[in-house]
Amino acid sequence: MASIHSQFPALARGYLGRPVAYFDGPGGTQVPTCVVEAMSDYLYHHNANTDWAYPTSIETDAIIAGARVAFADLFGGGSADEIVFGLNMTTLTFHVARALGRGWGPGDEVVVTQLDHQANVAPWRDLARERGITVRMVHFDAVTGELDLEELAAFIGPRTRLVAIGAASNALGTINDIPRIVELAHAAGALAFVDAVHYAAHGVIDVRAWGCDLLVCSAYKLYGPHVGVLYGRHELLATLDVPKLDPAPNEPPERIETGTQNHEGIAGAAAAVDFLASLAPTLPAGATRRGRLVSAFDMLHREGEALVTRLWDGLSSIPSVQLYGPRPGRPRTPTVVFTVRDLPARAVAKQLAQAAVFVSHGDFYASTVIAHLGATDRGLVRAGCACYTTPDDVDRLIDAVTQIGD
After folding, report:
1. Which of 114, 94, 139 is closest to 366 using CA atoms?
2. Fewer Cβ close by (within 10 Å): the C or N end of the chain?
3. Residue 167 DSSP label
4. Which CATH number fits domain 2-31+289-405: 3.40.190.10, 3.90.1150.10, 3.30.70.2190, 3.30.420.40?
5. Kind and range of the H or E element at 75?
């Protein structure tokens, strides 16, 4: 942990005489030095546009190509030409939805869920307005925080064109059974679109094993800069009717990307993947980056389970606190949401900040989750553990909430 902390300059920050404990990772993690250095190195020494015959342009092409390989390793996919970069997950999802929607119309259906971030709901609902498709929403159990898989299976049928599903809820931390849901979608002849934004910092992604057709994440949720990343099966990307300039590249992945990309952000995103791989315990010499990533995520999962159990048990012992979502031991990320008495979530977060404990509050764009829990008016407080979270940080959060709840 000392080694990890030394790589995050933000962790040296103090507030009101105390070191800051960052629990806002689900909204954006802190960034290690190696990521910032990769971005500054690009801007200082390689900054250029792509596809031209001079050194800095050729170097830019190589950096972007290397980043595609890095994310192919992170996603468990073997092909760099299946990796697309964009502004963020939301923009990429709207872009892909528009492309798919050009071939859809009345009678076609998309299945979404109440557990999802609005970025995996709104793009498909926009198609309902623009193209006349039907969007069907699967409910979740407000007590367990888990999807109603029987309802989901019932909603998927011969009219279903796509199932949009989150790998994990950014509000409740619930991890969904992606292989099973993808299998249900494919059995009906539908595509499977996975939002892995919240999941990507906590668990192993394996697009080949999962079988999904499309998957998106955001690098700033996994220790990188503000860049979105899309995986898509090559044959699907090659046929997407995307809006693009003329002339423009007609082969994946460039045909999916619009305009000049955030080259320095892409360099930093690749460095974030390498940072995650560096967290792996000792492995045999010559271990692949994918192997190191799998090992690192196994370690992060174990430590995350211990932290979330400590946090859940501590908060649940406070009579004025109400917790939401799956209990420890169920498939979940180390992210917890709660309320304190009848206080607005913003008021709780402001008081926690006075103890140098930084948490997020509100609905986190998971508005259907918050509405289903009856917390729309006051919102929820969210605390997420990251690779730099310590047991002492968790205890500080519990102590600070105890003082608010008394």
Report:
1. 114
2. C
3. S
4. 3.90.1150.10
5. helix 55-75
